[in-house]
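A reminder before we start the practical. When you read a complex entry, don't treat the lines as separate problems. The point of joint prediction is that each chain is placed relative to the others, so the output describes one connected object in space. Small molecules and nucleic acid strands, if listed, are placed in the same frame. In the example below there are four entries. Take a minute to note the order of the lines before looking further.
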Amino acid sequence: MAETTTFREVMAEIIQRITEGPWGPGSLLPGEVELAEEFGVSRTTMNRALREVSELGFLDRKRKAGTRVRMAPIRQARFEMPVVRAEIEKTGAQYRYQLVSRAVIVAPDWLRARMRLKARDKVVHLVCLHFADGVAFQLEDRWINASALPQAVEQDFSAVGPNEWLVATVPFSEVEISFLAAAADARMVAHLGHAPGDPVFCIERATWWQNAAVTLVTLAHRQGYRMTTRY
Amino acid sequence: MAETTTFREVMAEIIQRITEGPWGPGSLLPGEVELAEEFGVSRTTMNRALREVSELGFLDRKRKAGTRVRMAPIRQARFEMPVVRAEIEKTGAQYRYQLVSRAVIVAPDWLRARMRLKARDKVVHLVCLHFADGVAFQLEDRWINASALPQAVEQDFSAVGPNEWLVATVPFSEVEISFLAAAADARMVAHLGHAPGDPVFCIERATWWQNAAVTLVTLAHRQGYRMTTRY
DNA sequence: ATGTTTATTATGTCTACACATAAGGAGTCG
DNA sequence: CGACTCCTTATGTGTAGACATAATAAACAT
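Here is the predicted structure of the whole assembly.
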């Protein structure tokens, strides 16, 4: 079948030559035209192949300077961040959601500073649990800006989780995600089964829409949780 | 002189329409031909723009089904993982490296299992510190497979860090990266200034080359460290 | 020797066109 | 009604050619 060579095949061969072949770290590759000729493809296709390999982090490309193999190849890691439900159901486990607490209050100072809220802005504070096969998997601590999203005050989050509700309700224009290690507080001890002070892997995500704060969420994970990616 | 519209401009407009405009979550976009006509570009360019926006995680594309706005837009997070030296020097701080300990031993059982080593394989065990302006920033705990890399036994790591040495010496074909929260052990207490049991943000990276284990490294960070990314 | 201009060159990107491929949907048949 | 086939359609990808742009290197002037 493969009469024409695809850019994917070219990519595979390029990566092969980088990882196991003659193109060691730091070495300079031949130019696009020369490579295109060697592989029997058009320069367009060769360009696509080289661009994609470069996006994978293997190559460094600069006009005039040429294409060079990166010294430190793994400069970026992509992490899939599925919705909890999907992450749990993918493992074959059964997903269950539970609302722990819900309150509408005036935003505390630290939250105002963190999310650039105005004084006296009201927020909805939610605490929820996500279970995998009945075992607590993730504790969600979420703040929603009620000034920007008045609907959030009416919304009853006992059935549908705030994440799924938000995602279907409001767009976003700015996102900030952090990974960090925290010490288990009383709430985590109560719901996730940690001992007080245990290290907990947390993801914090802040979202804005047109400069207005939408939501801040901290996701605390069960003990021993790892976020892993492979190449 | 922007006589011709670039795919980047098209991308920006598309993202605008998704995040703040008429194309809400779940909505179906017009076909490539129609959009190309509207924007006054070729289908090739429109395809490139849509493909890249889709790679950013905003769109879902399927043949025949068309292009649809993702319900959960932030499905993947990209984290830059620079070499420590670069990460530190980027902040303007001065970088310093120090070798703490070095030993050549037979691989312990847990390491053999973790890295698929053969029985009685020897490994080089290194502990190193990376300082930013004289303050300990990262503690590196590294194992190098001496059977696959005999040069590592000869190498004196007192001046140049093992990471920089490895990167310039050996290629790789398989990488596994994990993020996790661990409790500070004695070594971290001694070198990073934690209290025993404090939560520590760790990165673990395992590397193979042609199915042979190359190295396993755990990078423990100073207290309060966060890995952050923004959109 | 040093700073400035100019040419060269490799990558970046747009266009127009053609064919490939996956998958939804209509129509057909048991 | 269900299962199958076939057609249609939107995206996926390859080609050839042209111009744009950044960055190095060479030539030049100070």
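Discuss with your neighbour: DSSP finds eight helices and ten strands in chain A. What might explain this?
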